[in-house]
Amino acid sequence: MVHAFLIHTLRSPNMEDAGLCRVLYSCVFGAEKSPGDPRPHGAARDRLLRKEQLLAVARQVESMCQLQQQASGRPHTDLQLQSSDEPVSLHEAPHGAFRLSPGDPFQESRTVVWLGVLSLGFTFVLDAHENLLLAESTLQLLARLLIDHLRLLTPGTSLLLRADRIEGILSRFLPHGQLLFLNDQFVQGLEKEFIAAWPR
Asked: What is the mean pLDDT of residues 44-69?
């Protein structure tokens, strides 16, 4: 099961002054309480805990992406925004997976699968023993759909104004955080359903 889906910023390795990593959008499936605290939890406190946990994951993904970029020798300009007409190859995009040990930052062990597309990171936080191949293919599918239908790589695009469309895509392709085995024909059918419900 997917516990969280994130879209966050990615800085290039040579641009430390470009600001901090920011979570632009997050969707949490299920909830986790503060560990080791017997006091009752309020909604605001739990929300703050989730934000801190997701930001910690986004920062780790950003570090992994920067290390991968430096190791590959690709120039840092690869992370700059392109025009919306230029196709983006997701198969060549930096990607990876890593394990989070219990307490860092979640109570239980989790696996993180991530994909870096130019200046955006797309990330799943999963059960520790989830099917990684299925998670990676689902994450690539979601990234492609979000980039194509929401024009996320176009300068000036605001994710805050498109949150309902992101949720529309997630509800069809990742219902309640469940990874689905989808063939191409079924994906096309779901995509047509989404286009009918949310014309561009």
From this structure: 90
133 pLDDT higher than 50: yes
Read off the pTM. Answer: 0.82
* pLDDT for the residue 38: 52
What are the residues whose beta carbons fall under 8 Å from the beta carbon of 173, sequence distance 6 or more?
A: 138, 141, 142, 145, 180, 182, 187, 190
* CB-based burial label for 13 (10 Å; 0-12, 13-18, 19+): middle
User: Which residues, at least 6 apart from 196, have a Cβ–Cβ distance to it below 8 Å?
Assistant: none
Mean pLDDT of the chain: 81
Cα Dmax for the chain: 54
> Would you say 80 and 119 are in contact if contact means Cβ atoms under 8 Å apart?
yes
Q: Tell me how far apart the alpha carbons of residues 159 and 24 are, in angstroms, rounded to a whole number.
A: 7
pLDDT at 108 over 70: yes
Q: Please name every residue paired with 2 in a beta bridge, in sequence order, or none if there are none.
A: 126
Cα angle 56, 176, 150 (rounded to 5 degrees) comes to 70
DSSP structure class, residue 8: E
